[in-house]
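## retry 2 of 3
previous attempt timed out at serialization; input unchanged, resubmitting
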Amino acid sequence: MNRIILILMALMLCSVNSPAQTIRNANNATMAKFDADGTLRNANNAAIARIDSNGDIRNSNNRYLGKICSNGDIRNSNNSYLGKVEDNGTVRNSNNATLGKVESDGTVRDNNNRTIGYARGVPMTYAAVFFFFDFF
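## retry succeeded, writing output
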């Protein structure tokens, strides 16, 4: 019994809370960060928006701005289609033109393959919304 308690205590001590994930520009300067709960904070740590677990995007006053749909579609507050984040990280606008890509390591590139930022550990769709769609 003591052994089980020790194992449980060790697991509790080793468990890690998800820290905020930083979004950086191409020069590696901090632009913003996403908290584990989806809150977006600016470089001064002020909450500026939140992406809820259902994909709803809201500003700091809780005003609905749009949605990240489960299929990768990005929609505005009027439910108009703005674009899509494909499974491979390619980001397209409503005309299906490529805007850029969020790579699996978090590197964000524009449509000319230039690095425009980094979002390591940030969900791909969150990074795409931050860099390519004008919500924030």
